[in-house]
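Troubleshooting log. The previous structure file for this entry was overwritten by mistake, so regenerating from the original sequence record. Sequence copied from the archived sheet and checked twice against the printout by T.R.
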Amino acid sequence: MAERNEKLIMELLKYPGNSVCADCDCENPEWASYNIGIFICTRCSGIHRSMGVHISKVKHLKLDRWEDSQVQRMKEVGNLKAKMKYEERVPPCYRRPKPNDPQVLIEQWIRAKYQREEFSHPEKQTYTKGFMQGFLMKRGKEDSRYQLRKFILSEADDTLKYFIKEYREPKATLRISELNVVFAPEKVGISTSLQFTFLKDGTTRHIYVYHEEPEIINNWYMAIRCAKLHRLQVAYPSVAEYDLVNYLTQDFAKEGWLWKTGPRLSDGFKKRWFTLDNRKLMYHDDALDAYPKGEVFIGYALDGYSVRIGVSAGVKDMGFSFSLTTPERIYHLSAQSEVDRDQWIEVIDSVIKRQMTPQESAISARLVRKRSNTNSISLFSPR
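Regenerated output below.
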């Protein structure tokens, strides 16, 4: 019987929708939740087990013994039918995770589906209301300490404010429509952390926050996305919702350490943390700096932008070097390995080949050449 049931389970894997994980779309799932009736990947199976057997009962497709009733349950349900039930009312602004997404995003998606049943009962979706307030731990601008700060999100006012003292004026007011938010667990070292990125006085500002409760930090992320979508729907009523969703939040195309030179051929290479945020290539002394040391706006190829392997004549080749050409100057950069260099070239080249949108042109126009503080630098800084 055991051998027969294992064969039946493997046959069910061939049914439409069952060949990928029911939760993250990872290919070739090796586990199943037999009471829910879905096929899932190894990563998601761990999250299912953590919810308890009263919610999800997990088995390996080959290594565990399958009972007739369990096989029958898998046959009756399957991934497609389960999605119709547990994902019936997923808000369009809710980010559906993919295999390589942060753990907190995948975990909260699974818990929202099966434990809290948020997508079967929309009244449980607190992040769609256009308003949210609460306390988050925020990293200091000048130091690495985190302090408790009150945040208020208001879709109606297009603002995200945070306060040092709860009943005083806000320390800062961010425009939701110009705000990007990404999960930052690897960089921050906290699994439940977010990075807010926005323009302030013509340069980019980073704010790092976290909350100990994964559900709460996930709700903040989704609330910002929902607020952005609702405002876009008002501003562009004729644009399809599917297209607007692509403009809510954008993960950084790539981050990591690179070496760069100054504008003179004799300048040496210095190590900097680089972040590619859509068309903004920012570099920092430290990965968690509040402001970039400099920013390079990457435009369209026909406007004088290009990237290639190697450096200009007279510049010392660091071994894994490449050059970014802009109308203002040539940036000489070097990666830590050949693979890393090729990845940087690939992502930058994909940006250069993409025509500019009106929104991107507006961002380019708002970026200023110098900051007004004591550490003022050129936007296309020589440092």
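Residues 369-383 have pLDDT under 50 and may be disordered. Archived copy saved in two places this time.
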